C-alpha cells in the first residue's frame, strides 16, 4: 500500500471522526461548574486500577529515571518529546482559528529543528517562542462541544466524552505519528517508545506534586476529578493552570496524547 493511499485513508477517517465527535459531544453539554459523573462507581474502580499501576510500575520507573539519568539527557529527552507534539498543535491552532498561535508553534518547530538539533535543545523559548500544546478535545470545546460525562480511562486516566473522542481523532490526524505508519517494521516500536518515554518523563516531573496532593486529599478520586476539570478549562482558554491543577491526568493524560499519536 502506497504512502498516498495510507494518508488518504487516515484523512478520511479523521474527517468522519471529527463529524462524529462534534455530533456526540455537542449533545452532551454540562451546566457550568458541574462535573457530570453518572458512571462514578465504574470510574472509581478504573481509578483504583490506574492508581495501583502507578504505585507499582509508573512511579517507581519515574523515580529510577530521575536517579539514574544524567540531567543533560533528561533535558534533551523532555525537549524532544515536546518538540514532536508541535505539528499536531499547529493543526489544532489552525482549526481553532488561532493563526498567531499557529505561527508561533510553527516558528518554534522550525527553529528548534534547525538550530536545536532536531528539538533536543530549546533555543526558541529565549527568543519569545514559548511552547504551548493543543489537542482535539480543546478544538471541539472551542467550537461549542460540551464535555459530556466524566470518564476515567484505563491507564490513560481522567477524561470525558469529548476528550475521549478527541483522543481517537488525534490518533488519526497527528502528522508525526502518520510518518510511523509508512510501511516499515519499526513503526510500532517508535510509537510505543514515544508513549513510554512520555509517561515516565511526565511522571518524574510530578512525583512531589502528586504525592503531596494524595496525602492532603480526603477523597483522592474527587480531588483528581476536580483537578482534571480545572486543568482542561485552563487549557481550553489558553490560560495557565493554577498550582492546584496537578492531577493524575498529567501523568496519564500525556500518555493519552502520545497514544493519540499512534
Describe this structure in words.
This protein has 262 residues and is mainly alpha-helical. It has one domain. The protein contains twelve helices and two strands; from the N terminus they run ααααααββαααααα. It has a two-stranded antiparallel ribbon. The longest helix has 29 residues, at 40-68. Residues 2-8, 240-253 and 255-262 have low confidence and may be disordered.
Question: Which labels suit this protein?
Answer:
disordered N terminus; 12 helices; mainly alpha; globular
Short description:
This protein has 262 residues and is mostly helical.
The number of helical segments is 12
Spatial strand arrangement across the major sheet:
1-2
Ends apart, CA distance between termini? 18 Å
User: Which ranges are low-confidence, i.e. pLDDT below 50, for 5 or more consecutive residues?
Assistant: 2-8, 240-253, 255-262
| Largest sheet composition | 2 strands, antiparallel
Count the E strands. Answer: 2
Secondary structure class reads mainly alpha
Rg computed from alpha carbons, rounded to a whole number of angstroms: 18 Å
- Approximate helicity band: 55-70%
Mean pLDDT: 85
Order of helices and strands: HHHHHHEEHHHHHH
Percent of sequence in beta strands: under 5%
Categorize the overall geometry: globular
Number of domains: 1
Amino acid at each position: 500500500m502506497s504512502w498516498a493511499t495510507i494518508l488518504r485513508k487516515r484523512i478520511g477517517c479523521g474527517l468522519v471522526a471529527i463529524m462524529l465527535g462534534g455530533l456526540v459531544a455537542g449533545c452532551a453539554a454540562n451546566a457550568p461548574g458541574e462535573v457530570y459523573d453518572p458512571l462514578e462507581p465504574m470510574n472509581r474502580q478504573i481509578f483504583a486500577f490506574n492508581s495501583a499501576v502507578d504505585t507499582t510500575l509508573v512511579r517507581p520507573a519515574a523515580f529510577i529515571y530521575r536517579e539514574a539519568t544524567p540531567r543533560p539527557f533528561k533535558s534533551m529527552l523532555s525537549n524532544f518529546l515536546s518538540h514532536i507534539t508541535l505539528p499536531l498543535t499547529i493543526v489544532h491552532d489552525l482549526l481553532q482559528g488561532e493563526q498567531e498561535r499557529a505561527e508561533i508553534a510553527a516558528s518554534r518547530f522550525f527553529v528548534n529543528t534547525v538550530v536545536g538539533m532536531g528539538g533536543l535543545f530549546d533555543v526558541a523559548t529565549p527568543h519569545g517562542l514559548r511552547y504551548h500544546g493543543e489537542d482535539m478535545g480543546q478544538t471541539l470545546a472551542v467550537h461549542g462541544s460540551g464535555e459530556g460525562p466524566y470518564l476515567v480511562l484505563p491507564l490513560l486516566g481522567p477524561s470525558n466524552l469529548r476528550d475521549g473522542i478527541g483522543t481517537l481523532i488525534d490518533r488519526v490526524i497527528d502528522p508525526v505519528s502518520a510518518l510511523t505508519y509508512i510501511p516499515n517494521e519499526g513503526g510500532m516500536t517508535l510509537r510505543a517508545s514515544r508513549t513510554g518515554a512520555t509517561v515516565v518523563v511526565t511522571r518524574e516531573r510530578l512525583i512531589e506534586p502528586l504525592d503531596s496532593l494524595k496525602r492532603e486529599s480526603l477523597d483522592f478520586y474527587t480531588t483528581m476529578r476536580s483537578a482534571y476539570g480545572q486543568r482542561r478549562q485552563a487549557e481550553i482558554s489558553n490560560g495557565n493552570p493554577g498550582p492546584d491543577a496537578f492531577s493524575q491526568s498529567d501523568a496519564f493524560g500525556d500518555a493519552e496524547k502520545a497514544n493519540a499519536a499512534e
